[in-house]
Amino acid sequence: MGITVRALANLALGEWLTEKGNRNEGSLRAKGGPHGARMYYRYRDNSGRYDDLPVGTFDEKGKRGLTLDQARAEVRALRARYLSGERDLRAALEADERERQRQHEAEEHAAEVAKATAAATLEALLSGYVEQLRRAGKPSAREVERTLHNHVRDAWPKLWHMPAAKVSLDDLLTVVAHVANANKLRESAKLRSYLKAAYAAAIRARQDARGLPELRALRITHNPAGDLVTIEGASNARDRALSLAELRAYWKRVCALPGPSGALLRFHLLTGGQRIEQLGRLTRSDLDSDLDCVRIRDSKGRRKAARIHDVPLIPAALEALQEMGCEVGPYLFTVTHGESGAVYATVQHRVRAIAVDMQESGELEKGLFTVGDLRRTVETRLSAAGLQPHELAQLQSHGLGGVQVRHYNKHDYLQEKRVALETLFQLLTGKVGTVTTIKRNRVSAGARG
């Protein structure tokens, strides 16, 4: 006997109706409830016990529940599964529900990942890398940002806004090649290095509890820039070192250059050709009047903490320091009376002008020279004068990353550096320097404890 709509509508609370069917196929049942009849599929499970699986609540119009025809369709579907061998339908349906939940969670996770990926653009990666450099106190942060903005943000805006994880080797190769093909080999090499380092920093941030959270959030797992081949010809080491005659001619012209510009170049040379960006950060607090030295904080390379590098000031260097003056601001290495520290372009412009004059006057044996060539010249000439490589390394703060130097050898080499600089002065002038008393009214210095 079949169940009717009228019977379902009038089914009393707790009363059952059963629709007859074929033996061992299960049947539709209904039970009166407080909010209408509830329908079930009755079948025998693996143990032979009857089980009533809920199908739904009856609603004649099918708005708040199932119509009778819809309930019969549900029962037919369950019966088909039952007859196909799924004898424990309840367990099978529970497994189906778990699978649906798993798929739902997977879809939600995929959506979250897609959303995070869309936000994790190349812009976010490169900006995060620059911010990490700033937080680490790296002076190179500004140059890195300028390079990335010029050659990625401004040149390739679509790539700049692309998800970083979807940026390919070909994409980055196009960016770097554009700069290299403009014959800016050194600039292209720097760009390649910055892109590679940015991806590496993001990957490392996922493993480092102290890594920048902004980089960790990008979820970068692959470094496409890691396979970019080095730029051939970009890192050809210069070997220009001035001869002693050229160096003395340069020194003579520097001494004849009036005002802060001449004092700037004299100070640069008399401190051993220190790195311009480091000299440019020197302030009054870095000058020790008792020891006659300046303290440079060398953060070059991968150092997390700057290396303390004390540079002695021989009398001629003190004279140049006094002539530069710092009446307006605190900076020592300056052409603005201390308002700002001199940058590389400031020094290189003046060095090049002198080099051009020397070339026109026949004072150069080879071609023009740069600030970097002067630094190399200092080391070359002092080495020829008998100074040892480790003494020169201490003077110019390079090649000091070994375990012995970092952990065991704490000697400050201040005296050895002073001897080296006095030797340099003798080479420049051809005579032994004499100690002179320097008035310090223009440079206010505080001794360090």
Short synopsis of the structure:
By secondary structure, the chain is of the alpha+beta class. The chain is 49% helix and 8% strand. The radius of gyration is 40 Å and the shape is rod-shaped.
Write the layout of secondary structure elements.
Blueprint: H1 5-9, E1 16-18, E2 27-31, E3 38-44, E4 50-57, H2 68-83, H3 89-119, H4 122-135, H5 141-153, H6 157-160, H7 169-180, H8 185-205, H9 213-216, H10 244-256, H11 259-270, H12 276-279, E5 287-288, E6 293-298, E7 307-312, H13 315-324, H14 344-360, H15 371-384, H16 389-396, H17 403-408, H18 414-429
Antiparallel strand pairs: 1-2, 2-3, 3-4, 5-6, 6-7
Helix pairs in contact: 4-5, 4-8, 5-8, 7-8, 10-11, 11-13
Structure commentary:
- Helix 4 (122-135) runs antiparallel to helix 5 and helix 7 (169-180) packs antiparallel against helix 8 (185-205).
- A hairpin with a 6-residue loop joins strand 2 (27-31) and strand 3.
- The longest helix is centred in the N-terminal third of the chain and has 31 residues, at 89-119.
- It is rod-shaped and about 125 Å long.
- The termini are far apart.
- Helices cover 49% and strands 8% of the residues.
- The relative contact order is 0.07.
- It is of the alpha+beta class and 449 residues long.
- The strands form two sheets. A four-stranded antiparallel β-sheet has the order 1-2-3-4, covered by helices on one side.
- The chain folds into three domains: 5-87; 120-227, DNA polymerase, domain 1 (Orthogonal Bundle); 244-429, Intergrase catalytic core (hpI Integrase, Chain A, Orthogonal Bundle).
